[in-house]
Every structure is written in C-alpha cells, then in structure tokens.
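Dear colleague,

As promised, here are the two records you asked about, laid out in our usual form so they can be pasted straight into your sheet.

NAME FIELD: protein one
SEQUENCE, THEN STRUCTURE:
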Amino acid sequence: MNEMTLDERMGYAAQRKKEMNCCQAVLVAFADKLGKSEDDLLRLGSGFGSGMATMEGTCGALVGAIMVSSLLSPDGEARNNSRAIMSRFKELCGGATICRDLKGIETGKMLCSCEDCVRNAVLSAGEALKAK
C-alpha cells in the first residue's frame, strides 16, 4: 500500500470523524506512521473529544495532532513542533484553540466545524513534521 498524501490524510480524518471523536480521527489518520493498532489509538484519544469532554478544553483534534507529533518527532523537537502545530491550527481556525470558542457556543458564530478542525489539525501536524 502506498503512503497517503497529506491531502488524503486530511480527507480520511474528516471521513472517520463521522464515527469517532476529533482526537481519535486525527490519531487514526496517522496510524500507519505511529505503529499502533487502531484500537489502541481509539482508546488513547477517547477522553479528548469535545474539548476534553466539556467543550471548555483544547480542541481534541489539536490534542491529537500534538500527540502524533510527539510520537514522531526526533528527540528534542516535540516542543518546537507543538508550538508550530498550535500556531498553524490557530491561524487556520479563526484564532481559536478551545472547543467552545471554535464552535461559537457563547458568540453564536462558529469559527470552525469539527470536520474542518480535524482537517486543519492533520495539516498542521503534517506541515510541522515535514519541516524537520
């Protein structure tokens, strides 16, 4: 099987979002690179959907992207990659990283749908990891 392109990973994650939370969708989009079973990745990401199950925490898709980067980054690069991922995700998602802000719970204006958060998280992780 050929390796997925970043665009294919983004689409795959958005498709899988229909059956799992945002964090899990990002993790399974990188399953081939992480060397973990899908079941293990689903368990790992289970508590991070919906802004850590409260919508008050960091977007689960962003958490998943940083988990991916942490597992795939060379020694000493995870922190720098996390910064890059956070910055790029925030740029792509209207300036927000907290679930309730992304969904516009208080403002009534959604900044980014869950599917787009997942796509943007995969893109942000992919870009940070390719830059190294």
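NAME FIELD: protein two
SEQUENCE, THEN STRUCTURE:
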Amino acid sequence: MDLITPGTGLIFWQLFGFLGLLFILIKFAWKPMLAALDERESSIENALKAAETARNEMANLKAENEKLLAEARLERDNILKKAHEASLKMIEDAKLESGKAGAQMIANAKAVIETEKKSALTEVKNQVAILTLEVTEKLLRKTLSDDKAQKELVDQFIKETNIN
C-alpha cells in the first residue's frame, strides 16, 4: 500500500507548487484572461446587437419596399384608369363631333335642295307664264283678226269690269 499512498513530503511539495503556480496565474494571467473573456463576450454581444439591428433594418426596408411597391401599383392603376377614361372621352368627343358634322352636312344639303327647289319652281312658273302669254297672244290674234270680234271682246270686258 505504500505504493498507492503518497508520502507527506510529496503532498507538501505538490501543494506548495500548486499554490505557487496558482498565485502566479492569479497575479499575472488571471486578469488578462478575464479581460480577454470580457472582450470576447462584449464583441459577441456587440455582434448579436448588430445582427439584431441589421435584421430590424432589413425588416424595415422590406416593409418600406412593400409599401413603395403597393404605392407604385396604385399609381399604375390610377394612370391606367385615367388613360382609359381619357380614351373613352376622346371616343365620345369624336362621336359627338362626327354627329354634329353629319347633322351640319344634312342641314346644308337640305338648304341646297330647298334653294334648288325654289329656283326650279320659279323657272317653271316663268316658263308657264311665257307659254301662257304666247298661247294667249296666238288665240287673240286668231280670234281678233276681224273688227267685229274685237268690238264684242271690248264690250264683254266692259261688262265684266262693271260687275266686279
């Protein structure tokens, strides 16, 4: 059992060595190791904060992009609606204008027809008057070729004039 249990001198020197090493480590290495651990912890914490900030910024950018996209779609829809309304208005205006132009052409044609009709009627009346005068002249020459017929005609006109 001697082999298994260490001697007291060995325990003393091992304890003395261990405490000396612990003192040296505490005096010279503990503070730099704690400082390195604190620095590493703060850098990890800063990295996590930066990642969270970046995630929030990305979420904000995504929301802003969605908002801009929605506004762009709305503006596009408004522009398309206005363009459609403008085209319908242009078509309606063109229909009205063509209707007015057609009505004006019909009115002008009716006026020309009416003028031509009046002119033709005047011409016909003139022709009828000329023909009537020619026929009357020929009848009068034929019937009034002798003196007796002329006297009878004058007497007849006098009688009619008195009656009227």
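A couple of things worth noting about protein two: The two ends are 186 Å apart (CA to CA). The chain has a mean pLDDT of 89.

Best,
R.
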